[in-house]
Design goal:
mainly alpha; 0% strand; elongated; binds heme C
Length: 298
């Protein structure tokens, strides 16, 4: 509620402060609606302040969207959730559990789609609502087959409320040796790391070319698709499959690499020609200077 109030008076306050102090200070008394009579500079300043207000308005409306009655009773969980990647992407309690985050009297009503807490075996379906591709691969895994016997589900590896951006670092001793030895986990990690480092390296090179204003979008898109196809494999936790797919992924990486190298060559040539032109200019200037100072002064 505080935010809604803020929303109304903040832009007004900014405009008022600006008109009373900033425009007056620059000796251009800006009266309400007198904007058109002002110098361009003052109008620019007003636009600038409106621009800032607009951003503050956006920020505070985002804050409103995240306000939820669920936080009041589930304080600890809300604190965990606030650190999660879901919170950063606007996925709140009700997006996973259902219910009505604005109804303080009856927030957990099944009529509002409240589904409560998923069972151990229900978790993949629960998360898979939004992560369909990952779920599909997980369901093919030995982990999924073992779920009824205590195999890991999404929450075992990602937690229920503190999910972070995922990477191969998740395949670590602490997590993966809870139920079996690390050697099979390590095989998966090593098989993945090979392509992973090449993909990251290509990403950096593409970014560098992009900074030189090369049209590299098509290559970037292909790499992104390859990256996703590759990362989806992890959840099958099948070393043979990963090694098999790696062959195809490696040839796609090789093709993209050749593409990027070609563009880098052109860029290197451009730099050399640029330097040659500059050297010629400097030489010309030097000869001119020498001519003026030696020949003309004689
Ligand atoms: C007025 C306090 C209050 C508010 C507001 C509230 N809850 Fe709860 N919630 C509780 C209590 C108390 C329990 C445990 C009671 C029980 O086991 O049924 C609970 C249990 C739950 C559970 C576990 C249910 C289960 O199946 O074990 C979930 C999930 C949940 N709440 C989500 C939410 C969400 C989502 C919201 C907002 C839409 C919300 N709660 C708002 C008090 C609240
Ligand atoms: C990404 C989906 C997701 C979001 C977002 C989410 N939860 Fe949960 N929540 C779960 C899952 C999955 C479980 C079951 C955990 C388990 O099985 O150990 C759970 C369990 C719970 C429980 C039961 C008690 C417990 O700790 O197991 C409560 C209460 C709850 N959540 C409340 C909330 C509240 C309040 C929010 C918002 C601050 C929230 N959840 C956001 C997925 C989510
Ligand atoms: C055995 C542990 C484990 C289980 C179980 C698991 N994950 Fe993962 N998850 C990982 C690891 C490790 C990564 C990082 C993969 C990578 O970087 O290639 C990951 C990555 C992800 C990603 C990011 C994918 C991407 O494109 O970068 C999402 C989303 C995800 N998991 C969701 C889920 C969901 C939903 C489930 C349940 C159906 C689940 N995970 C089950 C370990 C697990
Ligand atoms: C209502 C939709 C929704 C549900 C349900 C949901 N997520 Fe997500 N999840 C998202 C969105 C949106 C993102 C952020 C998109 C992105 O950047 O990849 C995300 C991101 C993630 C990531 C990080 C992905 C990455 O690229 O590294 C993980 C891990 C993850 N979710 C796990 C889970 C788990 C585990 C569950 C179940 C407890 C779950 N999600 C349920 C929508 C959802
Ligand atoms: C909660 C227990 C548990 C955790 C945690 C766990 N696993 Fe497993 N894992 C199992 C079970 C159960 C099986 C299937 C039965 C078996 O082969 O022993 C399995 C099987 C596997 C297999 C063999 C799959 C196959 O098809 O042969 C690999 C590889 C594997 N896990 C990797 C991992 C990695 C990587 C992690 C950490 C990110 C991990 N596991 C974490 C329980 C777990």
């Amino acid at each position: 509620m505080k935010n809604a109030h803020l929303l109304r008076w903040l832009p007004r306050l900014l405009l008022d402060v600006h008109q009373k102090y900033v425009c007056v200070a620059s000796r251009q008394p800006a009266l309400h609606l007198g904007i058109f009579d002002q110098s361009r500079r003052c109008v620019f300043q007003i636009k600038f302040f409106l621009f800032i207000s607009f951003f503050l308005l956006l920020a505070s409306s985002a804050a409103i969207a995240q306000e939820s009655v669920c936080f009041t009773c589930h304080e600890d969980i809300a604190k965990d959730w606030q650190q999660s990647i879901h919170s950063k992407n606007g996925i709140s309690c009700h997006n996973c559990h259902g219910g009505n985050p604005k109804d303080a009297d009856n927030p957990m009503d099944p009529k509002d789609g409240f589904v409560g807490k998923p069972t151990e075996t229900g978790v993949p379906e629960f998360c898979g609502k939004c992560h369909a591709g990952v779920k599909e691969n997980y369901l093919k895994s030995g982990h999924s087959a073992a779920l009824i016997r205590g195999g890991p589900n999404c929450v075992t590896c990602h937690t229920a409320h503190k999910q972070k951006r995922a990477s191969l670092d998740l395949i670590n001793k602490e997590l993966c040796t809870q139920c079996h030895t690390f050697d099979r986990a390590e095989k998966i990690r090593n098989a993945m790391l090979m392509s992973e480092s090449e993909i990251t390296n290509l990403e950096h090179r593409i970014d560098a070319l992009h900074a030189q204003e090369y049209d590299i979008d098509a290559v970037k898109k292909s790499l992104f698709a390859t990256r996703n196809q590759f990362h989806r494999l992890t959840h099958v936790v099948d070393v043979d499959l990963i090694l098999k797919e790696t062959t195809g992924i490696q040839s796609e990486i090789a093709r993209l690499k050749a593409d990027v190298k070609e563009k880098e060559k052109i860029e290197a040539k451009r730099k050399i020609y640029g330097s040659i032109v500059i050297v010629f200019f400097l030489l010309g200037a030097l000869i001119f200077w020498w001519y003026r100072n030696t020949i003309l002064s004689d």
